[in-house]
Protein backbone atom coordinates (compact mmCIF):
# COMPACT_ATOMS: atom_id res chain seq x y z
CA UNK A 1 0.00 0.00 0.00
CA UNK A 2 1.42 3.38 -1.00
CA UNK A 3 0.48 6.71 0.52
CA UNK A 4 1.45 10.20 -0.58
CA UNK A 5 2.16 12.65 2.22
CA UNK A 6 2.64 16.33 1.44
CA UNK A 7 4.52 18.39 4.00
CA UNK A 8 6.75 21.42 4.30
CA UNK A 9 9.72 19.81 6.05
CA UNK A 10 11.00 16.23 6.23
CA UNK A 11 13.62 15.35 8.83
CA UNK A 12 15.55 12.11 8.35
CA UNK A 13 16.41 10.46 11.64
CA UNK A 14 14.91 10.91 15.09
CA UNK A 15 18.10 11.15 17.11
CA UNK A 16 18.83 14.30 19.15
CA UNK A 17 19.68 16.38 16.07
CA UNK A 18 16.68 15.11 14.12
CA UNK A 19 13.98 15.48 16.75
CA UNK A 20 15.36 18.88 17.83
CA UNK A 21 15.21 20.13 14.23
CA UNK A 22 11.72 18.70 13.73
CA UNK A 23 10.38 20.18 16.96
CA UNK A 24 11.87 23.58 16.14
CA UNK A 25 10.35 23.55 12.65
CA UNK A 26 6.98 22.62 14.13
CA UNK A 27 7.32 25.37 16.75
CA UNK A 28 7.87 27.81 13.88
CA UNK A 29 4.60 26.69 12.34
CA UNK A 30 5.97 24.41 9.63
CA UNK A 31 4.23 21.15 8.77
CA UNK A 32 6.89 18.59 9.72
CA UNK A 33 7.44 14.86 9.22
CA UNK A 34 10.20 12.76 10.83
CA UNK A 35 11.31 9.63 8.97
CA UNK A 36 12.82 7.16 11.43
CA UNK A 37 13.96 3.61 10.71
CA UNK A 38 13.31 2.41 14.27
CA UNK A 39 9.99 2.24 16.13
CA UNK A 40 10.95 4.80 18.77
CA UNK A 41 12.35 8.31 18.71
CA UNK A 42 15.67 9.15 20.32
CA UNK A 43 18.25 7.54 18.08
CA UNK A 44 21.12 5.33 19.13
CA UNK A 45 21.98 7.36 22.24
CA UNK A 46 18.59 7.03 23.86
CA UNK A 47 17.62 3.56 22.70
CA UNK A 48 20.79 1.46 22.86
CA UNK A 49 23.76 3.70 23.65
CA UNK A 50 24.35 6.47 26.16
CA UNK A 51 21.18 6.28 28.24
CA UNK A 52 21.01 2.50 28.75
CA UNK A 53 24.72 2.32 29.58
CA UNK A 54 24.43 5.24 32.01
CA UNK A 55 21.49 3.56 33.73
CA UNK A 56 23.61 0.44 34.26
CA UNK A 57 26.62 2.49 35.35
CA UNK A 58 24.40 4.19 37.94
CA UNK A 59 23.64 0.80 39.51
CA UNK A 60 27.36 -0.02 39.69
CA UNK A 61 28.12 3.40 41.22
CA UNK A 62 25.50 2.96 43.94
CA UNK A 63 26.98 -0.44 44.85
CA UNK A 64 30.48 1.09 45.06
CA UNK A 65 29.22 4.02 47.15
CA UNK A 66 27.53 1.62 49.56
CA UNK A 67 30.82 -0.29 49.95
CA UNK A 68 32.74 2.96 50.50
CA UNK A 69 30.50 3.86 53.45
CA UNK A 70 32.25 1.12 55.46
CA UNK A 71 35.08 3.63 56.03
CA UNK A 72 32.56 5.78 57.89
CA UNK A 73 31.10 2.99 59.98
CA UNK A 74 28.14 2.07 57.82
CA UNK A 75 28.42 -1.50 56.60
CA UNK A 76 26.05 -3.22 54.22
CA UNK A 77 26.10 -6.89 53.29
CA UNK A 78 27.16 -8.06 49.86
CA UNK A 79 24.61 -6.96 47.28
CA UNK A 80 22.42 -9.54 45.63
CA UNK A 81 21.79 -8.63 42.02
CA UNK A 82 18.88 -9.78 39.92
CA UNK A 83 20.03 -9.05 36.38
CA UNK A 84 16.53 -9.53 34.95
CA UNK A 85 15.11 -6.87 37.29
CA UNK A 86 17.98 -4.53 36.45
CA UNK A 87 17.32 -5.00 32.72
CA UNK A 88 13.60 -4.40 33.26
CA UNK A 89 14.37 -1.16 35.13
CA UNK A 90 16.75 -0.06 32.34
CA UNK A 91 14.05 -0.73 29.72
CA UNK A 92 11.55 1.24 31.81
CA UNK A 93 13.91 4.23 31.80
CA UNK A 94 14.23 4.01 28.00
CA UNK A 95 10.47 3.61 27.56
CA UNK A 96 9.75 6.67 29.71
CA UNK A 97 12.17 8.83 27.74
CA UNK A 98 11.14 7.63 24.28
CA UNK A 99 7.51 7.96 25.31
CA UNK A 100 8.21 11.53 26.36
CA UNK A 101 9.65 12.30 22.93
CA UNK A 102 6.67 10.67 21.22
CA UNK A 103 4.37 12.84 23.33
CA UNK A 104 6.33 15.96 22.41
CA UNK A 105 6.08 15.04 18.72
CA UNK A 106 2.35 14.46 19.02
CA UNK A 107 1.85 17.70 20.93
CA UNK A 108 3.62 19.61 18.17
CA UNK A 109 1.73 17.72 15.45
CA UNK A 110 4.96 16.28 14.04
CA UNK A 111 4.08 13.19 12.03
CA UNK A 112 6.42 10.21 12.46
CA UNK A 113 6.82 7.80 9.54
CA UNK A 114 8.75 4.62 10.29
CA UNK A 115 10.98 3.15 7.61
CA UNK A 116 14.05 3.85 5.50
CA UNK A 117 13.99 7.07 3.50
CA UNK A 118 15.41 7.33 -0.02
CA UNK A 119 15.40 10.47 -2.14
CA UNK A 120 13.70 9.87 -5.48
CA UNK A 121 13.81 13.51 -6.56
CA UNK A 122 14.81 16.97 -5.36
CA UNK A 123 11.75 17.24 -3.12
CA UNK A 124 10.49 13.67 -3.04
CA UNK A 125 11.39 10.98 -0.56
CA UNK A 126 10.28 7.37 -0.65
CA UNK A 127 9.96 5.61 2.68
CA UNK A 128 10.09 1.83 2.68
CA UNK A 129 8.61 0.17 5.72
CA UNK A 130 9.63 -3.11 7.29
CA UNK A 131 10.10 -5.95 4.76
CA UNK A 132 9.37 -3.57 1.88
CA UNK A 133 5.82 -2.94 3.06
CA UNK A 134 3.96 0.37 3.23
CA UNK A 135 5.83 2.54 0.77
CA UNK A 136 5.10 6.19 1.41
CA UNK A 137 5.94 9.07 -0.92
CA UNK A 138 6.74 12.31 0.89
CA UNK A 139 6.77 15.58 -1.01
CA UNK A 140 8.32 18.50 0.81
CA UNK A 141 9.60 22.01 0.33
CA UNK A 142 12.75 21.37 2.36
CA UNK A 143 14.58 18.46 3.98
CA UNK A 144 17.07 18.08 6.82
CA UNK A 145 19.18 15.10 7.77
CA UNK A 146 19.85 14.34 11.41
CA UNK A 147 23.39 13.30 12.27
CA UNK A 148 23.61 9.70 13.37
CA UNK A 149 26.32 7.75 15.12
CA UNK A 150 25.88 5.18 12.34
CA UNK A 151 27.19 6.30 8.95
CA UNK A 152 24.55 6.16 6.24
CA UNK A 153 24.57 6.76 2.52
CA UNK A 154 22.06 9.26 1.18
CA UNK A 155 20.73 8.06 -2.17
CA UNK A 156 19.17 10.37 -4.70
CA UNK A 157 17.67 9.58 -8.10
TrEMBL record:
Family, according to the entry, reads as follows: Belongs to the class-I pyridine nucleotide-disulfide oxidoreductase family.
**Broad EC category:** oxidoreductase
Pfam families with a match to the protein in the record: Pyr_redox_2
List every stretch annotated Disordered: 129-157
By what name is this protein known?
Answer: Dihydrolipoamide dehydrogenase
UniProt biased composition (Basic and acidic residues): 130-145
* Domain FAD/NAD(P)-binding span(s) in chain numbering: 8-130
EC number assigned by the record: 1.8.1.4
The organism encoding this protein is Salmonella enterica I
What GO biological process, any one, is recorded here? Answer: 2-oxoglutarate metabolic process
Q: Which InterPro entries match?
A: Class-I_Pyr_Nuc-Dis_Oxidored, FAD/NAD-bd_sf, FAD/NAD-binding_dom, Pyr_OxRdtase_I_AS
Q: Which cofactor does it need?
A: FAD
User: What keywords appear on the UniProt entry?
Assistant: Disulfide bond, FAD, Flavoprotein, Oxidoreductase, Redox-active center
Q: Which GO terms describe its molecular function?
A: dihydrolipoyl dehydrogenase (NADH) activity; flavin adenine dinucleotide binding
Amino acid sequence: MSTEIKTQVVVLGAGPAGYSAAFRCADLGLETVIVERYNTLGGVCLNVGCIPSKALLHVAKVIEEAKALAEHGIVFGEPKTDIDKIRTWKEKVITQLTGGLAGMAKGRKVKVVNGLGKFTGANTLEVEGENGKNRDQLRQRDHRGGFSSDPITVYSA
